[in-house]
Design goal:
Layout lengths: L43 H24 L5 H4 L10 H19 L14 H15 L14 E2 L9 E2 H26 L6 H5 L7
Antiparallel strand pairs: 1-2
Length: 205
């Protein structure tokens, strides 16, 4: 019988197979890099870029409507399904999630923005208002945000640590509304593509 040579005592045991984060058998923990990211970097610049880019979508929607001789605000009221929010409400919801996220992660009270917008022009102003609010935050205000309790009234008195709130709720909810807004434009024939969503990447020289 062939015998495998004994493992020298000074060698570590073989590493387990790399299953990837979130795969079956990987366990509940999420790997964290040794240099933890300040949650400012995962929120303010990302929300700012993506919300600002909606204006490019609105420009394309306006060009599409003009070429086909209809009012662009028809698209503002368009929806994918009868029980889903229309385009205008999807954008309002994305704006709200962005402002709620940075406020809760820094222990502040977010401003109130009544959902009164009906037109694309009014939506632009809503975006400008929220982007200006995002711009008022500093990196140092996010110190300790990973563990700061974050809650909404609908959570029934429960809360999430800031890091979990961001990754398990805030970012998915933000992208849900943003993606649905994008899909409404595509469904109505507006010429937007993947890079109109992703936009510029922060490459380093």
């Amino acid at each position: 019988m062939q015998r495998h040579p004994a493992r020298p005592p000074d060698l570590p045991p073989p590493a387990p197979p790399d299953r990837g984060i979130g795969s079956i058998g990987a366990g509940p923990s999420v790997a964290v890099a040794s240099g933890a990211m300040n949650l400012y970097d995962a929120t303010v610049p990302v929300f700012t870029k993506l919300l600002s880019n909606i204006e490019t979508w609105i420009d394309k929607a306006a060009a599409h409507a003009e070429a086909r001789k209809f009012d662009v605000d028809v698209i503002a009221g368009a929806r994918l399904a009868p029980d889903q929010y229309p385009f205008v409400r999807q954008v309002q919801s994305a704006c709200d999630q962005a402002k709620f996220t940075v406020a809760k992660l820094t222990g502040k009270e977010p401003p109130s923005h009544p959902d009164t917008e009906k037109t694309m022009a009014e939506l632009r102003q809503r975006i400008h208002t929220v982007v200006a609010y995002l711009g008022s935050f500093k990196r140092e205000e996010f110190a300790g945000a990973e563990e700061r309790p974050c809650s909404h009234s609908w959570m029934g008195g429960k809360s999430l640590p800031g890091g979990d709130y961001l990754h398990h709720f805030a970012l998915p909810n933000f992208h849900f509304h943003l993606t649905t807004a994008y899909d409404i434009l595509r469904h109505n024939g507006v010429s937007v593509g993947k890079m109109d969503y992703i936009v510029d990447l922060p490459f380093r020289a």
